[in-house]
Predict the 3D structure of the following.
Amino acid sequence: MATDPRPAPPPRRFYGRRTGRRLRPGRQQLIDSVLPRLEIVLPEDGRALDPADLFDVAPKSLWFEIGFGGGEHLVWQAERHPDIGFIGCEPFVNGMSTLLAGVQDKGLTNIRVWSDDARLVLDRWPAASLDRVFMLFADPWPKNRHAGRRFVQTETVALLADRMADGAELRIASDDPGLVDWSLWHVRADPAFEWLARGPEDWRHRPEDWPATRYEEKQLHGAPVFLRFRRRPRSDVSSTRSL
């Protein structure tokens, strides 16, 4: 089978915690026994991933969450959309164990996970295949010298634009004003995305199909803001860039 023709991405450095408090025996057992069954394995020959191979039953749509924390949002969505395949990325082991507990308790079969930097799996993800992407209450890295550690950067927005299908939705939430401004600037700077807000109410209130998470409820930095963007059709973006 042919290898992925795209050039190998440059090495990336990951910032953030991977471990916290020592896991209880039950949670450690989930990491040892359940995680291997659900974790994505990248092809060794450099091929792009085939999402159809990840699930026992091919999903009608694929939704992708970057940094799911304790997994409350991911479990809520997966339980209500059994015909959709969910990919959750979270390097923090304690958060991963919490998600796995939810998956087991609910008997969910439509979640697969990646326990490392989301960019590594996105690098091998096929183009135009994601119908929804979530980034909810990411670490804001508030100090100016740490802004480069934020997930939302020019190159990652472009990467998401390539992996998302035409008309797909990108959802970002934060209670940190600095990260909100940063995210708005970077996503709106990419012609592939259209901000869906038409007035203040569109970002001040969480949509009904968007459950609260424990990070949102803490409101450590202020009132939460909910941003929604649409991936413009590729034909529209191409014509815009050619002007």
Q: What stands out?
A: The chain has ten helices and seven strands. The beta strands are 61-66, 84-89, 111-114, 130-136, 164-174, 193-195, 225-231. Confidence is low (pLDDT under 50) at residues 1-10, 14-18. The radius of gyration is 18 Å.
